[in-house]
Amino acid sequence: MTQSQPEQRPDVEPVGVDDVEAWRDLQDVLEERDREYWARTYADDES
Predict the structure, then answer these.
(1) 1-7: long-range pairs with CB below 8 Å, 24+
(2) CB burial class (10 A; 0-12, 13-18, 19+) of residue 39?
(3) According to the UniProt record, where is the region Disordered (predicted)?
(4) Could you list the pLDDT tens digit for every one of the 47 residues in the chain?
């Protein structure tokens, strides 16, 4: 048996469509949060 083959990890699933959708949703949420944060920060600066 050769050790050149990386060992298989059965607990790691290949990325599926559901994962990609969840990832996109997460990114959207984070972007929205960033926008709100910066909007508040700039609003505070102007006053």
Answers:
(1) none
(2) exposed
(3) 1-20
(4) 566 666 766 676 667 888 889 999 999 999 999 999 999 999 887 66
- Phi, psi angles (nearest 5°) of residue 12: -95, 115
3-state secondary structure of 22: helix
How many domains are contained in the chain? Answer: 1
Domain-embedded: residue 8: no
Per-residue model confidence (pLDDT) at position 44: 83
Q: Which residue has the tokens 């609003």?
A: 43
